[in-house]
Amino acid sequence: MILCWALGGYLLGAVPFGLVLARTIKGVDLRSLGSGNIGATNAMRALGRPLGVLAFLLDFLKGYLPVFLVAQLALGVEAGGQPILELAAGTAAVLGHCFPVYLRFKGGKGVSTACGALVAIDPLIFLLGGGVWLLVLALTRFVGLASIAMGLAFPFLTHWRTGGEPVEYWIGSVLIALLILWRHRSNMSRMIAGQEPRIASLGERRRPTETEAD
To answer: Does 212 reside within a domain?
Structure first.
């Protein structure tokens, strides 16, 4: 059963909604625009805010639905088994977004999908993590650094909210944090080299050339 939920989560997570929206509505390949990333941030920069928001919501749902469905449909699972299934389904969905089989395993950075999985467990974890994201973004104007900070905050917030039980939730948040950190390693290299672009401050305009986010 674990493998079935993990496979289902992965296949759903691997659907490149940003790429699909760009092709069906705009007739363009999102990978050839802006940062070349298939995630919601590049979709928003390259395709406009409405399509970007839609891409975010769809990527978010890729993480939310598998975990939510486990909670609703995993009936008859032995005691303590549901958190394991939620861990498998949610983590697999994030992996699917980052390494989609449909695109030869070249995908996004997993932030939106990870947020969806965490909301299905506890919305407050997402809201507090989002607060960390906003704070770091306001202080630094680095989207990638804000995403890294939010990812690193998730294990601490999850432990605080759950008290460490069930441990599967904390393990899942650690895996998500490590994956977000790994997927943003190029951003970290550019920040260290002083080459990472910042987002525009209020009132400024810039061209969509950043590669720092999901």
So the answer is: no
Question: Count of domains in the chain?
Answer: 1
pTM summary value: 0.84
Compute the distance between CA of residue 214 and CA of residue 38 in angstroms, rounded to an integer.
Answer: 8
DSSP summary character for residue 200: P
Q: Which domain holds residue 124?
A: 2-193
**148 contacts 180 by C-beta, under 8 angstroms:** yes
Asked whether residue 187 is assigned to any structural domain, the reply reads yes
Alpha-carbon distance of 207 to 198, in angstroms, equals 11
Residue 211 belongs to a domain: no
Q: How far apart are CA 96 and CA 62, in angstroms?
A: 9
- Residue 204: count other Cβ atoms within 10 Å of its Cβ: 9
93 found inside a domain: yes
pLDDT, tens digit (0-9, with 9 covering 90-100), for 72-119? 886 556 656 788 899 999 999 999 999 999 999 999 989 999 999 999
Task: Count how many residues are written for the chain.
Answer: 214
User: Rounded to whole angstroms, what are the CA distances from 161 to 3, 49, 69, 104?
Assistant: 28, 33, 21, 37
Cis peptide preceding 166, ω within 30 of 0: yes
Q: CB 198: neighbour CB atoms within 10 A?
A: 16
Cβ-contact 169, 83 below 8 angstroms:
yes
Helix then strand count (H, E) for the chain reads 10, 0
